[in-house]
TrEMBL record:
This is Xanthine dehydrogenase accessory factor. Residues 15-82 form the XdhC- CoxI domain. Transmembrane segments: none annotated. Pfam families: XdhC_C (PF13478), XdhC_CoxI (PF02625). Residues 173-315 form the XdhC Rossmann domain. It comes from the Bacteria.
Length: 327
């Protein structure tokens, strides 16, 4: 997910500010099975220190070995892994999954131009708008173009002289309230690469909550959402069974561009909630239709961990644009 890419860009910024040349790698295309999607990023220094990933292991090892040996001194290099022919400047590394991987490697010196483009990338990943990063394959020049966020993450131009990589807000999960299910959901989401924000004003719940890498806002989820907490790559999930937390969060979430809005409860509870939201919240049929209730895939979940798994599986399904009947 793109929150991993945000970590890569922030690491690249830190190293560039320290005067280090960095190599920014972008997955351009995958063929067959691959653990990382087009647009995924890795950044490395000449000494092999790196952040992010391209394949989950084998490709990174080969790339870093060659980098430390002095390879990739050009501004732009194209690699093709898993291809028997090796590809342009490629390495004949067989991927365990049997697929092939095309990677763009950019050498970015520690100068003002590199800082500027990395700052633009960071602001885009943290913001609420989309851009296209267009890279010239002849000289490595970069141009940013406005974008609506629709379409494939990577587009290779027909003239073979440039590639376009879509950049948008990092995938975000807002958890409305702390509960046994939401704690596990937060852990799953962080592992999946989401930026996770937990909102809960209840001091007794906050006192026992502490998860590395997860932001906590000690306010009502509805207040955080109403003050700009959501963008188009945001999922809002309410898992407390407390209408004061869950219902208010739903009322605000439907007024945002969040791609997923869901609340936990049985079919009977969900019908009662829908009536409350119509009566007290003034929500219409279109608003109600946006809310996934009951939340999650119907896996027959019983335990908090199983419920959290069903929730995050459904969030990822919607994020990837997969209809339920295609599963």
């Amino acid at each position: 997910m793109q929150h991993l890419d945000l970590q890569v860009v922030e690491r690249a910024l830190d190293w560039t500010r320290s005067g280090e040349t960095v190599w920014l790698c972008t997955v351009l295309a995958t063929f067959g099975s691959s653990p990382r999607e087009p647009g995924s990023l890795l950044v490395a220094r000449a000494d092999g220190h790196h952040a992010g990933s391209l394949s989950g292991g084998c490709v990174e090892e080969n790339f870093l070995e060659r980098l430390q040996a002095g390879a990739f001194d050009r501004s732009v290099t194209l690699l093709r892994y898993g291809d028997p022919e090796g590809g342009a400047a490629g390495a004949r590394v067989a991927l365990p999954c049997g697929g092939t991987l095309k990677v763009l490697v950019e050498r970015l010196p520690a100068d003002a131009a590199t800082l500027d483009q990395l700052e633009v990338m960071r602001a885009t990943l943290c913001g609420q708008h989309h851009l296209i990063r267009q890279v010239q394959l002849t000289d490595g020049q970069v141009q940013f173009l406005d974008d609506d966020g629709l379409g494939p993450r990577v587009v290779e131009r027909g003239d073979c002289e440039s590639v376009q990589v879509r950049i948008g807000p990092a995938a975000r999960l807002i958890l409305a309230g702390i509960s046994p299910v939401s704690v596990i959901c937060a852990e799953f989401a962080r592992t999946l690469g989401f930026e996770v924000i937990v909102c809960d004003p209840r001091e007794e719940r906050l006192a026992g909550f502490s998860l590395a890498g997860i932001a906590v806002q000690p306010v009502l989820p509805s207040l955080f959402i109403a003050t700009g907490g959501c963008h188009t790559a945001t999922a809002v999930v309410a898992l407390t069974h407390d209408p004061r937390i869950d219902d208010l969060a739903m009322m605000e979430a439907v007024r945002t561009p969040a791609f997923y809005i869901g609340v936990m409860g049985s079919w009977q509870t969900s019908r009662a909630r829908a009536e409350r939201l119509r009566r007290s919240g003034g929500l219409g049929d279109a608003d109600i239709a946006r809310i996934h209730m009951p939340i999650g895939l119907a896996l027959g979940s019983k335990t908090p961990a199983e419920i959290a798994l069903a929730v995050m599986a459904d969030v990822v399904r919607v994020l990837r644009g997969r209809p339920r009947d295609a599963l």
